[in-house]
Amino acid sequence: MSTLLRDVIAIPEHTGAEDYVLRLTDSVGHGAASTTIDSYVVTPAIAEAFDSALGLVGEAVTSGVSRGAFLTGSFGSGKSHFMAVLHALLTHEPAARAQRDLQSVIARHDPQIEGRRFLPLAFHFLDARSFDQAVFDGYIRQVRELHPQAPLPALHRSDALFADADNLRQRLGDDAFFDGLNQGTTGGDAAGGGDTGGDVWGSVLGTGSWTPDTYAAAKAAEPSSGERLTLTTALVDTYFKAFTQQAEYVDLDTGLDAIATHAQRLGYDAVVLFLDELILWMTSLVHDRTRFAREAQKLTKLVEGSLGARDVPLVSFIARQIDLRRWFADAGASGAEQDILDRAFKHQEGRFHTITLGDDNLPFVASKRLLQPRDAAAARTIADAFERIDRAPRVWDVLLDGINTDDHHRGADEAAFRLTYPFSPALVSTLRALAAVMQRERTALKVMQQMLVDQRDTLTVEQVIPVGDSFDHIVRGTKVLDTQAAAVFRSANRLYTEKLAPLIRAKYDVTAAQLEDDPASVPAAYRADDRLAKTLLLSAVAPNVPALKSLTGARLASLNHGSIVSPLPGNEAGVVLAKVRDWARDVPEIHVEGTSTNPTIRVQLSDVDYESIVDRAKGEDNEGRRRELVKTLVAESLGVELGQQDIQGAHQHEIVWRGSKRTVDILFGNVRDSSWLSDEHFRANPGTWRVIIDHPFDEQGHSTAEDLQRLNAMLARDVHSRTVVWLPYFLSPEKTQELQRLVTLNWLLEGSGDRWQSHADHLSETDRALARNILESHRSTLRRSLEDAIQQAYGAASVRPGTLLDDPGHDQVLVSLDREFVPQRPVGATLGDAFRHLVSQAFDATYPGHPQFEPGDSEIRLPMLRTVAAHVHRAVAERDKRVEYQGDHLAVRRIAGPLGVGTAAEMHYILGDDRFTPWSQEIERALGRRLKESGVDGDAPITVGEMRGWIDAVTPAKGLLTPVSDLVIITWAALRQRAWFHHGVALPTPPEPGALQPTMELRSQAMPALPDWTAATRAAAELFGISASTYLTPPAVADFVGQVTARAVSLTATQPPLVSAIEAAYARAAVSALTADGEEHRLATARRTAELVQQLRHLDGVTLVERLAQAGFGTGAAAAGKSMASAETVTAALGSFEWDRLAPLRQAMASEGPRAASAAAIIARLQDALVADEIVTAVGPALRRADREIFEWLAGDPGPTPPPPPPPPPGPHAGSARRTVGASDDELLRQVREFLQSHADRDVDVTWQVGE
Coil, strand or helix: which one is 121? Predict the structure, then answer.
């Protein structure tokens, strides 16, 4: 059994109201100094505060100027204790000067302080009537104790009265003075010894019997004593009737001056005023703003007097727990009043120093005053227990307050945790943050003590005190000084008392009386939940505490380390989150934000009546809206977008299964109701699966048994369809209520602004905004809760108590109308996973042989298939059918192997019959069946439609999509050297996947030798202008043969007429078919091309390629191509020429002379043109030139050839130039250019001729 903590540290059985609460006035003086100092913990920060305080005192006593300082800090930060120790230091108490942690500070300030006499006075303000009264009363009381024989300072206005009376006595003499005084007090009855009217002093002294002795005694008495008041009354009644105030102090300025003078006469160098609880007292005046303002302004008098320099300086230390400016504003001060106060406070702040006593000293104080081990053995026990704390970061970092760190919050370390163990730094940080608003009786240290006392009999050394345990001590039953904080505390208390506490008690069947009378019987699980709830509320009360900011399930568990028990170690965060989600469904103020596994949790505290808004909109809930809401929630959980519906109301949903895109039809409806879902609704479309989804509720009196009954009847009627029916369990009444509320909230919050406005118009604008925020959050919580319930209803999650109706007879969540497919129960972490698994099961059963393209959820797209097809074509053109990857090699790797269209090696793609499996064998079997059934030979053409049918018939069924099936067909055609034809026309290149048409044919294609192919394609390009693929493939050969044949057919009509026309022209022009150099030209070319096209038109396939390869035109192929291309034009030109016109020229050639020579030249030029190939000399222009020359020749005797014209004479208007053979043209062109430029405004004639 673990050791109780009380056995190793001293934990009292009870706490006292004044434990750790020091009253300054009771803690000063020689007798109290030792106890005060012994219990004081000096940290480096506190030492710095003493340094500032002693420096202020030294400065005042050195300069003679009054000084003041605010000691700021929350309740429990040690302000009173600090002033008590400072009091002891200024009275040179040995115990104070012996404090080692202060000696360096004391030594630093001794030159100004040592040897000086200070009058340190402590003042307690909580019962004060006024600032003046508290200071003057306190001064007189303490001075009388210190100097009982010394005269008191004149602080009361009655002193002035006595001074006037003494002057009057001196003028009148004793007899007349006392006669008048006694007569005035005796009245009519006094002389006769009548009633004294209850005057105590009158009965003692004798009515009307004032004597010099009794007068002196009364005048020397305490200002508030009875005899002094009696004397004052007598003087007022007799001599000074206008004086109406009794025992009234002088004004503060005068009184403080009198105190300084009095202290100087007593031998003091300075008066040090310790004003404790002053600011707290002033907060009690806040509702009397005039008085509050008057008293607040008096603080300045402590450091600034209006009567000039004081005889000794006053040094004031004022404890300040609260910012009075904020307090006064919270109390409702007007803008003008607040402005006045702001200026006054700023005036004070400029005259008072600030010494901060931070609550970061709390760990050190708690360690020394609260958590000290009893002995060394106890210390070891605690240290061992500390070492056993879970150091996992998810726990340790939270306990160390290491969450949400920044420049202002660094968190704690292990050493700091050791100081405060079993209080974690996170809990200490929470206490420090809330100490500013707690009462003086509820300091952080006091709360820590109370927590130890409350758990004295159960707390072991192994336990870290949960943060939630501080809630009752901080929030519940605490009167908070800050107005805003008080409102927050009230809201937190109300939320706990009215909602969370009853909710947790109901869960564990615990009563309030049991908690009070028999707390030991309360289950530990209840305590754990209670702590979590209280921690949540603390996060709302103290939202700026880093450890409580942006809470998550993991942090909640860690802040209450040891309280949460999880069946799975390390899953405490999940347990906590589930609890909080459950609460949030009933408590709208709890917000669980975010959809991650560790969302943020927060509580919104508010007093807004949001339920009244919901009550006014409850009529908007109906069954139709519930069904639509469930449909939306289910669709979102499935991951399905509900787009447009078909005529039956089904939604098409596309999925990717094994890399292929498939369609699933989803239809919502009530299965038992044939008026809603007819039998036709259960029939799936071809190639798809249909999923019919029922709702998790039905009209009163109906159950899931009716749904199953209808499905069984359909199966009995042999209804067969690729359809799965999803029959959920029904929601529990509690979940149905949540559904109804969510319908109402959706209607209220999603509609137009008028809906919200009209239903929330009874609230103020501010409250409406808060209510909407709460209801929006609650709607999100309910939605998440119902999403979780839907997961359970549709079988995708284990059922949790209270979510679904108990229905033992409902054992089939999924029912298939396809007898070949029996679905498993929903499998998956979510409903979406279960849906995808169901669809995958369905398609697995339908197409078990489909390739496993990985990753299966990524679609195989057309560009990927076409990349593989390109590798296929490149591979079949290689001898070893191996090619390096090009382009998207990942697509080739992903598709080729699984589909069986080659092997994707590390660096190469490899194809072959042995790598085309099972397709090679399956297609051969199909060809064999065709031969057997239809007598069609295997080499006969095959249509794409036929091959698709064969592929679809392969077993086990593969269910290939058309583009994927196309790739198989393309690969087979490439391996079998099949050519592609469409409508009888060869395709130049194989079509790509996705482009195949059912009517396309695959024909056997013989293949030529590669040298013949190369020669033939080169010849075809030059002869016919036909381009062919460089790769020798069946489609390329088929296309090439088709193009050449078509071209040969078209040329057959033009080539024979061309030969005839040339032969006729040769005869008319007397041209020999053999030229002088022995080479054949135009006619020979025409005859050879005519012969070639005649042969080609009757050839096919390899024979045509071989014949074309052997055409033998060599370098004359271009001339032959030109001849064939221009055949029709040349034939027409030759046929239309007037050959008879040559006769006169031939006659002239028989004679001699220039005219004969000219005729001979014309005919020679014509003959040369006819002999030359068309590519050398075009016939048409040559014939036209000859026709023109003949006309000119016939027009007359041209005579001798005239000599060339003489060169123009030199001058500005003429010129000439000559270029010799081999010379550059530049000089000639330069001269012409210069001539043209110099005569730019004139016409210029340019002539040229060839020199002899």
Answer: strand
